[in-house]
Amino acid sequence: MKKIVECVPNFSEGRDKDKIEAIAGAFRGKEGVKLLDYSADRDHNRMVVTAVGEPEALKAAVVEAIGVAVEVIDLRVHTGEHPRIGAADVVPFIPVRGVTMEEAVELSKDVAREVAQRYGLPVYLYERSASAPHRTNLADVRKGQFEGLADKMLTPEWKPDFGPDSPHPTAGAAVIGARMYLIAYNVNLNTDRLDIAKAIARRIRHSNGGLRYCKAMGVDLAEKGIAQVSMNLTDYTQTAIYQAQEMVRMEAARYGVTIAGGELIGLMPLGALVDTAAYYLGLEDFDESRILESHLME
Amino acid sequence: MKKIVECVPNFSEGRDKDKIEAIAGAFRGKEGVKLLDYSADRDHNRMVVTAVGEPEALKAAVVEAIGVAVEVIDLRVHTGEHPRIGAADVVPFIPVRGVTMEEAVELSKDVAREVAQRYGLPVYLYERSASAPHRTNLADVRKGQFEGLADKMLTPEWKPDFGPDSPHPTAGAAVIGARMYLIAYNVNLNTDRLDIAKAIARRIRHSNGGLRYCKAMGVDLAEKGIAQVSMNLTDYTQTAIYQAQEMVRMEAARYGVTIAGGELIGLMPLGALVDTAAYYLGLEDFDESRILESHLME
Fold this sequence. Notes:
- Two copies of one chain form a homodimer.
- Chain A has 298 residues and is α+β, with helices and mostly antiparallel strands.
- Chain A folds into two domains: 4-178, Formiminotransferase-cyclodeaminase, Chain B, domain 1 (2-Layer Sandwich); 183-296, Alpha-Beta Plaits (2-Layer Sandwich), CATH 3.30.70.
- Chain A is 32% helix and 24% strand.
- In chain A, a hairpin with a 4-residue loop joins β9 and β10.
- Chain A starts with a strand and ends in a 17-residue tail after the last helix.
- Chain A binds chain B through residues 4, 6, 34, 36, 52, 96-97, 181, 188, 241-242, 245, 259-264, 266-270, 273-274, 276-277, 280-284, 286, 290-298, and chain B through 4, 6, 34, 36, 52, 96-97, 181, 241-242, 245, 259-264, 266-270, 273-274, 276-277, 280-284, 286, 290-298.
């Protein structure tokens, strides 16, 4: 089985078409790498690339893309609504297929080491790759943004994991690490009462005692005239989609509310689908290898 | 997206290891073809190969394998429990990915034409490729077996679709065609009463007024102490797995019986899994393209 990793790097350029294409171009025409999607936002002045590939091939493409970003983006003149600390702002690696989290962590460290060395870029490791608990959350690492980076780096807590002890003059710093695949999954309720959606969200999410890898909030879908429980499942191998749905159903029942349907934002890995189907069909000994197409991807 | 077809040819050799390997070998080391499985049965004196691949590449491998079978198998001295009409007894093509049934039918006819010409083999088209209703079912085409073939071929109803009007002296005839992917899916009941499993099977199967693409029978799983509804779903794109399960649940309820679990025999296509998950999660606009891995197979 071919090993597959996903990378969803965010770059601080959402306006200049030539620069956007130059960065995305690093993921094109590379054996073993597939550019799934890229999109740029003018207001955020930021672009997000989604690429998958075999670890070594993907690593090379990401290193190249970061090099292009360092070359073409100048944070000193960068404005936009989205917080950012550098040109290659955040670079998460996500294990997809035949790859352990440990391998994804190693891959992220290899990339961090290489871009620090090659481009003189300070790099912070975050999420599962973090070298200390206070560096786990992106928001903490990015706090103060590019403008506050030079001062922040003077403190020992924010000495970078790789690279120089001061910001790259135009490209700031990069935040690189490995994390689990995040599934954005929403459940629509047969009610327009936002308070009910919020109450359900509080019951099912980790922060209030609910499912460990579930973040949730109540959302008012005014146009549709319904309320929604909007969720991020941050580790679908531990907290499955069907658990999230059934927990919503269970909590909704106390208000006499039923589920109107579900909604997946973006993509989900085959493993998440397999789990869910296995639960509802009561299948034992069922895994990805029972899906015909999984044998076409070796 | 790469087009993928499956072929599950049955050859009349299940004892001679060299011959078995020679036939299976036609599917090895071919660009665009993947040998998923092959197994031989001594009692049946028969082997079944499961291969997938791009249409043209798979076609070439199948033609080659039939050639090997014609060369190494002699039906005049063949004994076994399984009915058979020829060395390459039955050769079904199944659309898997990006391929219509019409294309699979054309592919089966191409193979039929080529093996008839190249090996002097009479070929009957069956299932979706059949040239007349009485040739649709394999059992009808194979009736009389190799031993009765010469007489059968004297009647105009059994003039072959391709090749000579009399049997190949040692290889008989071949039955080739296209059919849908068949999902073998069983539902275990929380009862040991075979009569209940049989009654449920009668209600849900097509032959008695049930689901159009569902064959079903009641089975006694004596070792497990339970009864089972054993099903073949002959077109999962029309009759979905979740429909079959929910119909079993509905019928079981009248006997106060619940479902103990499900069982998938062999593999199922991703599309069947997507259908089932979409139903239970109430997802709209959900298809294979929402599965990350489906983008790795282009």
